[in-house]
Amino acid sequence: MKILGKFPSTRLRRVRNSDWIRRLVSENDLSTNDLILPIFIREGKNKIEKIQSMPGVFRYTIDKLSIILDKAEKFKIPMIALFPYTPNFKKNKIGSEALNENNLICKSIEFVKKKYKSFGVMTDVALDPYTSHGHDGVIINDKIDNDETLKILNEQALLQASIGSDVIAPSDMMDGRIGSIRKVLDKNNLKDIKILSYAVKYASNFYGPFRDAVGSKKKLQGDKKTYQMDIRNHNEALREVGLDIK
Known about the structure:
Blueprint: H1 19-25, E1 36-42, E2 48-50, E3 58-60, H2 65-74, E4 79-85, H3 104-115, E5 120-125, E6 138-140, E7 143-145, H4 146-163, E8 167-170, H5 177-187, E9 194-195, H6 208-214, H7 235-245
Parallel strand pairs: 1-3, 1-4, 4-5, 5-8, 8-9
Antiparallel strand pairs: 2-3, 6-7
Helix pairs in contact: 4-5
């Protein structure tokens, strides 16, 4: 067996330091311990909103989150994943709302961590819920600029982790973002924060309902083929996984 990783950037105790993470990564078991519940949140009060492209799935205002969280707690689901539906007036070309410490995601993290001690909380690191063009990165000269996007993703990840997110989940597919975010977290004494990499994410229409759920579908200009993967490529997928682990 080839051993991947090197201390201190690799710390296997990260996936042992809480009961919920030990349950989540247990290798030889199949139960609700293996489930992550995605929850879509929206601004406002006293609202539970249908998502037309996802029958039976809803967007919740923070004051209504207990309805779904109580059910998740009953079934002992170890982790929830929060996804924001950002109103159009808060979107711009660089997705600056992602760095607002009082944004919807940050307030939701605070609510869950205060009211529910049994859950791990995972948060999405990407700009598409916040950009006026619907892309996961910053557009410069009509192209998604990888390295300028990384700078924002680093700040977004640091903010979410500082507020209380347990697992940072970069879903943007920019090159180098896993190593970059790990360094930023470690530098800021957030060594125990876990990263779930969307290592192999394809440019696919199957994401249509999800993009609808976070409000980026109608905003998307063009497609995401320059940064999300080609479904025809197998070796490229293995390279993406290997680079993220490394």
